[in-house]
């Protein structure tokens, strides 16, 4: 399967974080609009056969990855009890 990376430029604020299932649903609606319901149905049948035509991850800020659930020392943070809460609050890492 090929890997594609898309950059979304929103024109308004989002009510909730962009989850992969929301983006997948929007892509399915776009496919149905462009190619018809029959084509979308044919593409979706691959999911029952363990052959998905598309897998979409949750959206992330450009240039960042979600912070793994690891001790701060393993992520390269200096052990400092004063900064511990600040470091743990970082949800995204460059």
Written account of the structure:
- The chain has helices at residues 20-35, 37-44, 84-89; strands at residues 65-66, 92-93.
- By secondary structure, it is mainly alpha-helical.
- The protein folds into two domains: 1-59, no CATH class; 62-94, no CATH class.
- The protein has a two-stranded antiparallel ribbon with strand order 1-2.
- Helix 1 (20-35) packs across helix 2 (37-44).
- The longest helix has 16 residues, at 20-35.
- It is elongated and about 60 Å long.
- It starts with 19 loop residues before the first helix and ends with a strand.
- The mean pLDDT is 85.
Compact description:
By secondary structure, the chain is mainly α.
| Largest sheet geometry | 2 strands, antiparallel
Mean pLDDT: 85
Helix count equals: 3
**Helix fraction?**
25-40%
**Spatial strand order of the main sheet:** 1-2
Uncertain stretches: none
Q: If you compute it from the alpha carbons, what radius of gyration comes out, rounded to the nearest whole angstrom?
A: 19 Å
Query: How many domains comprise the coordinates?
Result: 2
Write the layout of secondary structure elements.
Elements lengths: L19 H16 L1 H8 L20 E2 L17 H6 L2 E2 L1
Antiparallel strand pairs: 1-2
Helix pairs in contact: 1-2
List keywords for this structure.
94 residues; mainly alpha; single chain
């Amino acid at each position: 399967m090929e890997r594609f990376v898309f950059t979304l430029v929103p024109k308004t604020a989002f009510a909730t974080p962009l989850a992969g299932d929301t983006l997948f649903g929007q892509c399915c609606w776009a496919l149905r609009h462009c190619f018809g319901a029959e084509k979308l149905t044919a593409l979706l049948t691959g999911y029952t056969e363990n052959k998905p035509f598309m897998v979409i991850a949750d959206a992330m800020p450009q240039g960042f990855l979600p912070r793994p659930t690891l001790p701060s020392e393993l992520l390269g943070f200096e052990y400092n009890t004063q900064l511990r809460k600040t470091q743990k609050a970082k949800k995204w890492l460059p």
